[in-house]
Amino acid sequence: MPVWLIEEPDHLLLTLHVQPGAKRTEVAGTHGDALKIRLAAPPVDGKANDALLSYLAQQFGVPQRQVELVSGAASRSKRVRVYGPRLRPDRKWG
C-alpha cells in the first residue's frame, strides 16, 4: 500500500501535494510521501480546494459530499478523506 494512502473500513485518507494553476487537472505521481495532483483551478477564493474535492469525487465515483478536506485548506499539503469509494483509481496511481 502506498505511504500516501490509509485505508479504513469506511473511508480512505489521502495525503496530497497539490499544484494549483496547472494546464490540466491530473494525478502527477508522487511528491515525497504524498500523491501529487495538478489542478487547472487557480489558488484563489477556495477555487482550487473546490476543484480538488470535485475531481476526487469523480475519480472515486462518489458524490462530492463524501469527500472531505481534513487539513491543509491554505496549503499545498492536504489530507482528504473519501467515504465509501465505489471506484478505486488509487490502485493505478501507485
Please characterize this protein's 3D structure.
The chain has two helices and six strands. By secondary structure, it is an alpha+beta fold. The chain has one domain (14-84): Conserved Hypothetical Protein Mth637, Chain: A (2-Layer Sandwich), CATH 3.30.1200. β3 (26-31) and β4 (34-38) form a beta hairpin. It starts with a strand and ends with a helix. The mean pLDDT is 96.
As for the number of domains, it is: 1
The CATH first-level class comes to: Alpha Beta
Q: Indicate the low-confidence ranges by residue numbers.
A: none
Helix content: 10-25%
The secondary-structure element order is: EEEEHEEH
In short:
By secondary structure, the protein is of the alpha+beta class. The chain has helices at 47-60, 90-93; strands spanning 5-7, 11-19, 26-31, 34-38, 67-71, 77-83.
Task: Explain the layout of strands and helices.
Layout: E1 5-7, E2 11-19, E3 26-31, E4 34-38, H1 47-60, E5 67-71, E6 77-83, H2 90-93
Parallel strand pairs: 2-4
Antiparallel strand pairs: 1-2, 2-6, 3-4, 5-6
